[in-house]
Amino acid sequence: MKTFLQLLPAVSLGLIALTQAATAQQALHTMQTVKLERGAKQYIGALLAEDADNYVLLQRDGRMKVVSRSGSSHPTPLLDSFAPFTAQTMQEALKAEFGKEYEVSQTEHYLVVHPVGKAKQCADPFEEQYINARQYFEIRGVPTRNPDFPLVAVVLNTRGEFDRFLENYQPENAHDQVLGYYSPRSNRTITYDQSRGRSGERNNMETLIHEATHQIAFNTGIHSRFSPMPRWFTEGLATMFEAPGVHSSVTHPNLQQRFNKKWLSYIRSKARPGESTGVLADLISSDELFRSNPEKAYGYAWALTFYLAETQPEKYAQYVRRVSQRTHFRDYSSQARIEDFARVFGNDFTDLEARVSRFLVE
To answer: What is the pLDDT of residues 295-332, one digit of tens each?
Structure first.
């Protein structure tokens, strides 16, 4: 059995790492609030899971905390139910954490930490994306729910500050190609101000939309924070929403505006109508392609997601529901991934790849 440190999710530009845990998850409102003490430190939250080595707590601000059993007290019940912090309490804590160089703006669903005076540029896009994303799914018959916690997003002043944060959260992904990330473990989106110049403004908006989509999906029932999600599924969704016709469909209603031009160009340079390379079967069964060839993985994750959402929206909604309802803290084997996909879309992956390429290339 893997340790919880290996188990818990982590996303960098959507990159997810999840394996297996020991116990099933209860509904949030039925959880009991407990206290753990380890040395001079005290941890309070709902006990999500435990194994021979660790406890996993869901803290009242939405973050997950792994606490080693070694040297820890047994969980002590405090309350019969679990109560998240209020937005006001979390806002004051964020102000104390980030200091005077930052403001914390509250929208209906978000608390956004941002450089002083940049609420409109930094906070408004997160709230707008929340509204657009939920509307997108509701229209397509995918039920969503309200988040259990205020959603926290952090927009830092500089790339240097972002790099230091990235090293703390995801040292293996600390490189200059990462522009932002959402961590299911912390339940925070972190990025930095990239808004200098036109290309910077575009990069800034795409990053905000991409990471906000991850965060919204993991907090409204589209994805599960406590279960392994196929990376093609999470990344395909986030890259799909980058296109103006998806994240702003009212003002961009045409099909051409729903294409992600970057990844469409990539697919058209690689795919040939009617040909199959086996790439979709690899993506569906495993996340390995994201490690060995990230560009190819992101490109085909977008292509597959866009094709399914556009041409088979009812089946895509069925697949979303199926994967999001998996048992929490359980491994997701290659065989199970293939079976879940095939149960909805069939198992002829050669034909599927040919249909995707014809849809996007011809």
So the answer is: 999 999 999 999 999 999 999 999 999 999 888 888 89
Q: How far apart are CA 351 and CA 231, in angstroms?
A: 22
> Quick check: 172 pLDDT over 80?
no
How would you label 222-249 residue by residue, b for 16+ Cβ within 10 Å and e otherwise?
bbbbbbbbbbbbbbbbbbbbbbbbbbbb
Q: At what angle do helices 231-241 and 119-139 cross, to 10 degrees?
A: 120
**Phi first, then psi: what are they for 56, rounded to 5°?**
-120, 120
> Which residue shows structure tokens 């409102």?
29
Q: Which of 154, 137, 328, 150 is nearest to 225 (CA)?
A: 328
Whether the predicted model's global pTM rises above the 0.90 cut: no
| Structural domains in the chain, sorted by start | 22-79 (2.30.30.100), 87-219 (3.40.30), 231-361 (no CATH)
> Is residue 5 predicted with pLDDT exceeding 80?
no
Model confidence at 281: pLDDT above 90? yes
Amino acid at 260: N
Q: For the chain, how big is the Rg over CA atoms in Å? A: 20
d(CA 307, CA 360): 8
Q: Which residue has the tokens 């990053």?
A: 207
Q: Within 13 A of 170's CA, how many CA atoms are on the CB side?
A: 29
Q: Give the containing element (helix H, strand E) for 41.
A: strand 41-50
Phi and psi angles of residue 257, each rounded to the nearest 5 degrees, phi first: -80, -10
Cα 108-112-113 angle, rounded to 5 deg: 155
Nearest C-alpha neighbor of 215 from the set 4, 16, 3: 16
Read off the pLDDT of residues 15-53 as tens digits, 9 standing for 90 and up: 222 222 333 334 676 788 889 999 889 999 998 888 888
Q: What share of the chain is helix, strand, coil (3-state, %, to 5)?
A: 50, 15, 35
- Burial state string for 35-54 with b = 16 or more CB within 10 A and e = fewer than 16: bbbeeeeebbbbbbbbbeeb
- What is the number of other CB atoms lying within 10 angstroms of the CB of residue 310? 14
